[in-house]
Give the backbone structure.
Amino acid sequence: MTFRLQRRGDPLASIRCDSALTNRVLPVGGGSDIGFYFTEPPIGLEHSPKTGTWHPVAPSFCVECGEACRFVSFERRWPSHFGELVVAEPLLHRTQALLELLSGLGRVGVAFSGGVDSAVVAAAAQRALGARAIAFTAASPSLAAGELEGAVALARHIGIRHQVIHTQEFADPHYVRNSFDRCYFCKSELYRRLLELAPTLGIDVLVNGANADDRGDHRPGMVAAQEFAVRSPLLELQITKREVREIAREWGLPVWDKPASPCLASRIAYGLEVTPERVARVDAAERFLKECLSLRELRVRYEPNDLARLEVPLEALPRLLEPSLREQIVSELRRLGFRAVTVDLQGFRSGSFNDMVPVSELRRLTPGVGESS
């Protein structure tokens, strides 16, 4: 619901609120200009001692157009107990559309990695379908340490039925050779296993957590999803990553701000075989670096000749190069099996190996690339 504060007939702000919050009101505006009431003093308003009323502060950006304009966005300014207020009206409509889409699919199986995207889909499926929804998490050597336990705990938090399955992508030579379409073979193995389980568990449809921002990126796994008739509710409703995080925060999902955590195979340079030993080496190196640098997000890229290329946020580069810490890092990574350690001066970049993928391969392997939007 949208409420507008009026001052001499001109729109001053656009604020969204739950109309059910009526237990204690504070006037907004002044004199005959009062146009809306709040139950508590919101952060986005300032108090005038002279009039005893509340007025909007200077606008930041508009939730409608994304730019500074005469309509004020108070997004992210509300106290936590105003949980319903931080989602813009269009997103509320999309959230409802997500629940309606899932409720019409029958019995649903969710490909659930434990990341924010699949968590929102799983939570929506649980809300829409209850016991008719089940989440599946694939366990394999390419899953980073702690991710499986995190997915199990998150499924319990959501309340959705959950099952861990073991996939065998490392037995597929097409996956191991690590060409540009590696993800296609990984997702094909996952969806094949899920479809084998579907009749036993009474599943009508499989869904995944692909969102609108994934279209146009290098995502060979989306081709596999199409071939196995896997639905992508977030993508179908054009819900972006930013909106996914807003929904997750609204629903109290602890992973709402969790950094993206692609499988460990994505750290191996294309053309270099993906082996359990190499992904385990990367996993151990990243866990060590996150602990000693106190960072949530970084990458150890596995280059040919057992070379480790470190990607950290730019602000962390000076600390990474401190002599004592640098020596500690080199010593530990050499102990893990890397022969040399380098630092990428461009800093952390998600999916940096995809910069090497030729445009022709992007168009062939990723739905939406090269298409007009």
